[in-house]
Amino acid sequence: METGGEVKRDMWGYAVVTSSDSCISAIDSYYHQVLSYGRNRAVILEGPLHDPDCVLANILAAYFLFHSDRSKSLSHLASASARLDHASSYEALVFEAVSSLLVDDRDDDVAIDLHFKLLKGYPKDLVSLKRAQLLCFYLGRPDVSLNLVEQVLGENQQESYIYGMLAFPLLELGRMADAERAANKGFDINKDDFWSQHALCHIFQYDCRFKEAVDFMEACSSSWNSCSSFMYTHNWWHVAVCYLEGHSPLQKVLEVYDNHIWKELQRSDADCEEVYLNALGLLLRVYVRGQIEQVGDRLKVLATILADQSNWHIEWLLDLLALWALSSTRQTKKAEDLLKAMKSRTYLMGRKKQQSMQRAILLAEALYEYGRGNYERAFECLGPDFDANDCKMIGASDEQLDIFNEVWFSVLLNTGHVSKAIEVIEKRVNKREGIPFLWSLLEKAYATEGRVEASVAGEKAKALEIAYF
């Protein structure tokens, strides 16, 4: 195309129709912020200020604003559309791919196909790759995410960010050895590649190498101050979970919560909802382990904040965790309102998406009942064959989802489904045998049935508790 205006090149070397060096600089800065999980992705809004007619700057600004300011997002979308005839071929493909995401009833399959098309022609555009992988994450399709990154890998061999983007779908597919090689390669190229750091932590956690994960992440933590609220608190969430899983004293977990997760809210540029997400994910793990008395005040503070409806419907995972927080702190009416609102959201979806989200709604109902201590009803919602990995559509990694399996184990034991609890916990420890909490649950289940294996499971739990921290 390139039918009007001066042509400049972005950091990938692709043509952008603009006469403004400052506009290109804003676009390139945005690329860096996205790939480095930086705090200043809003820099893209400077692009249209420097050149209101730039299609690429406007469509990227529209995408950035879509969930926070729909009116301004649509304004930028209209500006990009109005100048599309003057755009470069690259800009036109970016517009086509991004605009497919900026509708309430979007067709996810179409959006993915458009990103495949874009990346086939312009494989160095790692921000479009990241955007497509994020979509795959919410669809629970790590296989498609891997296909996307493999399509462009040959053109990006020296790019550090590509290897973290390769590692994550590999680990979600259970290919841990391949994932570790990819993440290590990214980390070797760039020690401050936070996504490679994060992938390595996932791998260490999966292998129950909890002390190794803590030592590695804490050694990297001095570089995290530039991270977005989500990435900063999520990395510390991983550290806290490793302390908890490795049976470190709870005080270590709470030090991470207070000094790194909750303290993030003191920053003027904090994204509060991202902090709440990681804070709640940690407190639920503590709750399931029967230690809520020591964190009850923290949970009440969070629940009070999340009773405010302005914090609802930002992320499905946050809504689910908020639902548990509200019901467990006896804010029953607010919890009921949130649950109704979550159900209403699905009515606006297309049939395919609506059917997929039914599992999320059943999980929501179960968490509401679980928080109230109504374990029988929670069991009815989850059913006898629940697996949290079937709920990827809520936007959660395997590690984030694992807490819902632990909730299910607890529900099984509290409703007398002991044989089923033994079956699923045994299956879990065969896969990840280094978690003391699971062995303790198994000991409890064996003892309930009077089985001799109870003492063996108890000894295993105690041995692991000593070994880690």
Q: How many DSSP H or I helices?
A: 24
Question: Whole-number average pLDDT?
Answer: 95
Unreliable runs, pLDDT <50, ≥5 residues? none
- The gyration radius over C-alpha positions equals 23 Å
Helix content: 55-70%
Structural class given helices, strands, pairing? mainly alpha
Tally of DSSP β-strands:
2
What do you see in this structure?
By secondary structure, this protein is an all-alpha fold. 69% of the residues lie in helices and 1% in strands. A hairpin with a 5-residue loop joins strand 1 (7-9) and strand 2. The longest helix has 22 residues, at 351-372. It is globular, with a radius of gyration of 23 Å. It starts with 6 loop residues before the first strand and ends with a helix. Belongs to the TTC38 family. InterPro entries: TPR-like_helical_dom_sf, TTC38. This is Tetratricopeptide repeat protein 38.
Spell out the blueprint of helices and strands:
Layout: E1 7-9, E2 15-17, H1 21-35, H2 46-50, H3 55-65, H4 70-82, H5 89-99, H6 108-121, H7 126-139, H8 142-153, H9 160-172, H10 176-189, H11 194-206, H12 210-220, H13 229-245, H14 250-261, H15 272-288, H16 296-306, H17 316-328, H18 332-347, H19 351-372, H20 375-382, H21 398-414, H22 418-431, H23 436-448, H24 453-468
Antiparallel strand pairs: 1-2
Helix pairs in contact: 3-4, 3-5, 5-6, 6-7, 7-8, 8-9, 9-10, 9-11, 10-11, 11-12, 11-13, 12-13, 13-14, 13-15, 15-17, 15-21, 17-18, 17-19, 18-19, 19-20, 20-21, 21-22, 22-23, 23-24
Family: Belongs to the TTC38 family.
Keywords: Repeat, TPR repeat
InterPro entries: TPR-like_helical_dom_sf (IPR011990), TTC38 (IPR033891)
